[in-house]
Write a structure and sequence with these properties.
Strand order of the largest sheet: 1-9-10-4-3-2
Oligomer: single chain
């Protein structure tokens, strides 16, 4: 999907990785990368070692791309990796910025950090996508940089088809933006448990094709289901949510309860979902897929 790129490598901006160059080991090739789709046509890839995190943004745009580490999912106080391909030199431009957004005045500031910690590795642009690859220390000691922690955090992504006139020029407003949650210090999917033994079983409880009406800030949906009949006693040893990436911003939390006893002859799996909690007024309608 993302081929036919002319790769532009900026060796001059990799001085902080002199040790890797001297050893003949490329940072990108020595780590395993994980990928997360953001939207239908863009993706974020990342990898890490003991000291650094390397990120690649592959966005469907001809302009600038950005990735922000947010404290709460909002734009305010976000630490931003910003980049684009210079139309004159075809070289990647990578910048370390900090975003503040005043909710009362609607004023947004997006200045360059005094200390530039993101370093460009490579960049490219084809007829549809822009790719920016950069690396940064996990902890920089810069008050404008948020550290990479071994925990899931809010990540913002944004893009525009417009290019800055120069590295210090005003940034045009994004045309597409969104958010997700990522842990940059772990692979995207944890190692799967060994389910080859006969003593292991997997049960899935799904909430498919549920429409969330726009008449409330939040909804509680409940569904009762009947467990299968087992020939022996089992213990629950692990659980993991199954969430479609497009539904991430609609999900707040999931609860699972065991109800006992229930009439054995009833198959609750055939029953529909029902509202089971308080709600308050709002707008918008969403479909869980």
């Amino acid at each position: 999907m993302f081929n036919d790129y002319i790769m532009v490598v900026s060796i001059g901006k990799m001085l902080s990785f002199l040790l890797f160059v001297c050893l003949g080991v490329d940072f990108a090739s020595s780590i395993e990368f994980t990928r997360r789709d953001v939207g239908k046509t863009s993706e974020i890839s990342w990898g890490y070692n003991a000291t650094h995190v390397e990120v690649q943004m592959t966005y469907r745009t001809q302009g600038w791309v950005a990735l922000g580490l947010s404290p709460n999912g909002g734009m305010d106080q976000s630490d931003v990796l910003f980049g684009y391909i210079n139309s004159t030199t075809n070289e990647p431009v990578v910048q370390d910025r900090f975003l503040t957004a005043n909710a009362e005045t609607h004023v947004i500031t997006f200045p360059l950090d005094d200390q530039q910690d993101w370093q460009a590795i490579s960049g490219s642009r084809n007829a549809t996508h822009t790719v920016i690859r950069a690396v940064r220390k996990q902890r920089t000691c810069d008050p404008k940089d948020r550290p990479f922690l071994d925990a899931s955090g809010f990540v913002l992504f944004a893009m525009s088809n417009k290019l800055p006139e120069n590295p210090d020029a005003k940034i045009h407003r994004h045309e597409i933006r969104g958010k997700t949650t990522l842990n940059f210090l772990r692979p995207e999917d944890p190692p799967a448990p060994d389910i080859t033994q006969e003593v292991s079983k997997i049960l899935e409880f799904r909430v498919d094709n549920r429409t969330i009406k726009g008449d409330a800030d939040y909804h509680y949906f409940c569904k009762m289901t009947t467990l299968p009949k087992f020939d022996r006693k089992y213990q629950s040893i692990a659980s993991q949510p199954i969430i479609n990436a497009t539904n991430m911003k609609q999900i707040h939390h999931i609860l699972l309860y065991m109800c006992n006893p229930l009439p054995a002859e009833d198959d609750y799996s055939k029953q529909d979902f029902f509202d089971c909690g308080p709600s308050s007024a709002a707008g918008g309608t969403f479909l869980m897929k």
